[in-house]
Amino acid sequence: MDEILRVEGLSKQFVKKSMFSSKKSLVKAVEDVSFSLYNDEVLVIAGESGSGKTTIAKLILRAITPDSGKV
């Protein structure tokens, strides 16, 4: 089987600003995600709202830059 996608140690954080103060905090959206996808395989990313599914997709598509790891 041919490997068509490899994700290694992918992590992404975002700065969350408080609505009522100038305080900022870091939110870990994705932390140390790794997987490989091979020809003729199907990958499903499932989870609750806010669990990082869309962030993983944007990282794979290179729409956003990871803090660490590689695609």
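That was protein one. Protein two is written in the same sequence-then-structure order:
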Amino acid sequence: MTESGRRHPVVLYIHGESYEWGSGNPYDGSVLASYTEQVIVTINYRLGVLGFLNANVAPETKARMANYGLMDQIAALHWVQQHIALFGGDPENVSLMGQGTGAACVHFLAISPTVIRGLFKRAILLSGSALSSWAVVEDPVFYALKLARAINCTIPEDLLKDNELIVDCLRESTLEELMQIDIQPPTFLSAFGPSVDGVVIKPDFQKDLLSYLGPEFQGFGPLPKKAEHGAPITSNNKYDLLFGVTTSEALWKFAEKDVHQGFEGERRDRIIRTYVRNAYVYHLTEIFYTIKLGESIYSTFDP
């Protein structure tokens, strides 16, 4: 609390860049704090295999915790509630902000039934959301098995029944052994990141989110708030939401030569095809030509 007795709003920032590398340490909140008179909190959370390993083949019927990176973020929110007043912050006025993959994490927490009411009041999504094509790992078991084979773990015949044996084997490995294994995902995607585990992220969360927007989106009508087995799909908590994007925010994925000199249409088309093939399952041709058409219109009218 300040000398005047007033507590300041709090911003908890979740860093992005990647689900597999990064840190909250480089983000200096002092400038934002001085201009806005807010308390800025940055955090670290488990990444990669330590934060998001998921070997559960049936999360819709057998929920098992897998999103430990998201649980670290929830733990940070609890810490803020308990201690931020000692730093002049108001625990009842907390905004959760993230950029890129961090924004997707913020969105996952906003819709997760694991997050209790009152941990934060507002969600700020910068260049990402839980509905982004790269936000969730669609087949986490595939990457868990690749890692297990690289460590020489025995793969059980019945994955549905004995998937925990894979996790137990990996836990016996040293951190150095795990970090030496390089699992390469498709371009633009992650091998280890948030995935449906039935606990923090429920099955069919995308459909549930789109139902709020109306039946004209993706052909989904309003869905019930409970899954067939009775567990809530998403949280009933309500938050103020601010979100936005910027131009050229994916430039860091390209080589320096491409950024400064550009590239020809043929290479552009290959990049778009790679992205569409890796990020989507259905209507790939339609999506490809929609992106190309949008790019052509932008180029035509760009002064």
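The radius of gyration is 21 Å. Keep this in mind for the problem set.
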